[in-house]
Amino acid sequence: ALETLTLHFCGEIRLNHWYRRAAEWHTEPVIRHIYRLLSQDEARHGGAYLRYMKKYLAEVGDSARAAFAKVGVLMASARRTAQALHPTNLHVNKALFPNDTVQSRLPDPAWLERWLDAQIRFDDAWEGKVVERILHNMGLLFERTFGSVQELNRYRKEVAARLAAA
């Protein structure tokens, strides 16, 4: 449950940036406004998830830290994957692979990559903003600063070692 919470929290950060980029890319004022509203709504969802994450940190401590850091490392490592990391396109069922994602069930599963790459051009600079926000928010949760995914991963290992020793 804690991993799922973190997955959705990071997904909201990613969607916020996709919609911000789409608002910037479009020229039609009404469409730009709609994408800005969507972006703000995703940020609001992320804020709600963050409040629950803080609650679980207070309740279960290092177990929550371990779960949050593990998924944070995964979701901030999107540059290493062939496709965007979002809950709708992560594989969840080995028996149904590769048709086990929300995206794979759509009439045109390739639409997302086309939209990101060819239309709104969600490039490395924008991906960097997503990673920066994930690291920033993980830092707020853990009362630390993470300048890279590697630093967050080292923290994840520290927490895992504490849990194993307990």
What does this protein structure show overall?
The chain is mainly alpha-helical. It has one domain (2-165). It is 69% helix and 0% strand. The protein has helices at 2-25, 29-60, 62-75, 111-119, 124-142, 149-165. It is globular and about 55 Å long. The two termini are 22 Å apart.
SSE run: HHHHHH
Supply the number of structural domains: 1
Unreliable segments of 5+ consecutive residues: none
Main structural class: mainly alpha
Helix-residue proportion: 55-70%
Query: How much of the residues is beta strand, in percent?
Result: under 5%
Brief rundown of the structure:
Helix content is 69%, strand content 0%.
Keywords:
166 residues; mainly alpha; globular
Topology:
Layout: H1 2-25, H2 29-60, H3 62-75, H4 111-119, H5 124-142, H6 149-165
Helix pairs in contact: 1-2, 1-3, 1-5, 2-3, 3-5, 3-6
